[in-house]
Structures are given as structure tokens and as C-alpha cells.
Amino acid sequence: MTTPMPETFDEARLRLRAQAAEARERREALRETAAAIHAAHATVRSSDGTVSVTASADGAVTDVTVTESALDDTPAQASRTLTATVAAAQRRALENAVAASAERWGEGHPLVAELRQSAQRFTSEQRTWGYE
């Protein structure tokens, strides 16, 4: 049985440099992914066309537009329409964030799977709240 020779100092240094370069590349890729997730948003119009909502992947509503014809709705109907449209915009923004991550890392990557699970939990919670 032969014992493998320990690597030389130069070999070890080259291996460590390669590992450091790979770590820098991964860190940059994670930064780009975080930026893509942060930038993910969606605009959704209500089925009756009276409300339009833009939301980001973190759930923040960044714009709401209400048409004049929305004033013809009862307050209860207007509230339901607005709430449903906000929920739909939030879901779509989350889907966009997951898609951006999958594009960068691939569908099978653990980060993508975790984001997808988080999005599914959020969507399930919205359903229990009645925001479908």
C-alpha cells in the first residue's frame, strides 16, 4: 500500500487561490440574486378592471390605481376587489422572484426550492385569509 504524497506548498497555494476565487464568484452570484429578488415586482389589474396594484416580492404595495368606475361599487365590493388585487399582485411578485432565482441557479438548487416553499406558504396563508 502506498501513501499519497502530501501536496507541495505551491500546490496548496494554487488550490487555496482557486477556492477563494470560487467563493468570490458565488458571493457575487448571491448578490445578483438578492438584487433580482429585491427588484421583483408585479402589477395586477382586477378582473373588473377598476383597480390596478403593483407589489414587490417582499409584499410591499408600491402603487394602487383606482378608476372612476370603481366609485360605483359599494364600499364592501370595493374593499373585496382591492384586497383580492393586492393579494394577486403580491403572489405574482413572489412568483417573479422565484423565477429570477431559478433562472440564475437552476430549478434544482436548494435556494430556489426554499424560495418556492416560502412563496407557497404565503399563498396558502392568503387562501386561509380568503384572499384568492
Automatic annotation (TrEMBL):
Keywords, alphabetical: Coiled coil
A Pfam family per the record:
YbaB_DNA_bd
Q: Does the keyword Oxidoreductase apply?
A: no
| Keyword Isomerase set for record | no
Q: Which InterPro entries match?
A: YbaB-like_sf, YbaB/EbfC
Which stretches are annotated as coiled coil? 13-40
Protein's name according to its UniProt entry: YbaB/EbfC DNA-binding family protein
Organism this protein belongs to: Demequina litorisediminis
